[in-house]
């Protein structure tokens, strides 16, 4: 197998060749067809998450075809196309797993962080944590759905837990926001996009996808929002979003990592505004989201890169050099 491996945090990925891995009990080996490049990969590479086993092969938006199965997996699954998400394994025994909150498992394993991921032409996955991919999606356009799409979906449902949402703000208009916009608009919501100051390409892209308004993060939207979701890993956007939502509104922090939230006055939280976060995903999220996205016509705007150019794809993601999502093609 060929892979792009992270030797240690703060280092560039290195090309490596290894023997093809063998699937263990309950596992499958996939021939990787596409793997999305996610901002969480940058957090792993930059050492912004607790360090997992090193070296590691990043990548957790994996689309591949089963080419070998381990003990307990039916041979008939060979040839099946599956998606491998961020959540790669849970213990099934802690209170969170037993209470239906496996996304909060005390002893989880994560694809591309604590187990090897999809920046490779072969990868191993626990078949219980893989998703069938709707036939309407090609490999490259399906890949971003497996994290950017899923975490946006989970944050979107969290935003509507307290009250119905008609006006939705999205802070940080990258892979997750451009996918969620399409779903929210299809559901009849008005979407307000917040980007970095001066990022006219992202604002045009947002309007092209159906956003009712697009501006800078520090701008005041023309209408009070019912809810806002923050995808940008910037803590300073939290007070901005709280100011933008109406009384009783909800602000959801959608990232696994965020810079420190600055001190803010209590009056922008008062009047029953809610500030919550989402963590990871559950398998049920994937089973719910992928068919819904397909039915709503959600399509990823993809910039493809050869697998060998993973470092360039990551650099371009960091620089905001493209709209939508980057995808590595082995």
Number of helical regions: 9
Tally of domains: 2
Give the averaged pLDDT, no decimals: 97
| Assembly classification | single chain
Overall CATH architecture of the largest domain? Alpha-Beta Complex
What would the principal axes of the Cα set say about the shape? Answer: globular
Low-confidence stretches: none
Structural class: alpha/beta
Which homologous superfamily in CATH is the superfamily of the largest domain? Medium-chain alcohol dehydrogenases, catalytic domain
Largest sheet: 7 strands, mixed
Secondary structure tally: strands: 17
For the record, the CATH class of the largest domain is Alpha Beta
Radius of gyration in whole Å, from Cα?
19 Å
Distance between the termini: 11 Å
Say what the CATH topology of the largest domain is.
Quinone Oxidoreductase, Chain A, domain 1
Tell me the helix content. 10-25%
How much beta, percentage-wise?
A: 25-35%
H/E element string? EEEHEEEHEEEHHEHEHEEHEEHEHE
Give me a quick take on this structure:
The protein has 330 residues and is of the alpha/beta class. 24% of the residues lie in helices and 26% in strands.
Topology:
Blueprint lengths: L1 E4 L8 E4 L9 E11 L1 H7 L16 E8 L11 E4 L2 E3 L5 H4 L10 E2 L11 E5 L4 E2 L6 H4 L5 H12 L7 E5 L3 H12 L3 E6 L4 H9 L4 E4 L8 E6 L6 H8 E9 L20 E4 L5 H14 L5 E5 L3 H10 L5 E5 L1
């Amino acid at each position: 197998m060929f892979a792009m491996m992270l030797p240690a945090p703060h280092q560039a990925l290195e090309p490596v060749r290894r023997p093809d891995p063998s699937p263990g009990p309950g596992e499958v080996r996939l021939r990787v067809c596409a793997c999305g490049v996610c901002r969480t990969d940058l957090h792993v590479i930059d050492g912004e998450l607790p360090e997992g086993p090193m070296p590691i092969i990043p990548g957790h938006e994996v689309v591949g075809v089963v080419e070998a199965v381990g003990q307990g997996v039916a041979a008939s699954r060979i040839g099946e196309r599956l998606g491998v998400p961020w959540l790669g394994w849970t213990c099934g025994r802690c209170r969170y797993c037993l209470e239906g909150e496996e996304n909060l498992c005390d002893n989880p394993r994560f694809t591309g962080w604590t187990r090897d991921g999809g920046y490779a032409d072969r990868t191993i996955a626990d078949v219980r944590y893989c998703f069938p991919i709707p036939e309407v999606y090609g490999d490259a356009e399906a890949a971003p759905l497996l994290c950017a799409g899923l975490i946006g979906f989970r944050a979107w449902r969290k935003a509507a837990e307290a009250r119905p949402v008609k006006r939705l703000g999205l802070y940080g208009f990258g892979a997750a926001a451009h996918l969620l916009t399409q779903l929210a608009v299809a559901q009849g919501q008005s979407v307000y996009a917040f980007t970095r100051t001066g990022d006219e390409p992202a604002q045009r892209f947002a309007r092209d996808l159906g956003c009712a308004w697009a501006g800078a993060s520090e701008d005041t939207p023309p209408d009070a929002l019912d809810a806002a979701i923050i995808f940008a890993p910037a803590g300073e956007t939290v007070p901005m979003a709280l100011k933008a939502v109406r009384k009783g509104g909800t602000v959801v922090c959608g990232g696994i990592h965020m810079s420190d939230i600055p001190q803010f006055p209590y009056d922008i939280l008062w009047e029953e505004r809610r500030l919550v976060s989402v963590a990871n995903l559950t398998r049920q999220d994937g089973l719910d989201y992928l068919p819904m996205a397909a039915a709503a016509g959600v399509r990823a705007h993809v910039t493809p890169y050869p697998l060998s150019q993973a470092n360039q794809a990551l650099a371009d993601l960091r620089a905001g050099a493209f709209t939508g999502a980057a995808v590595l093609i082995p």
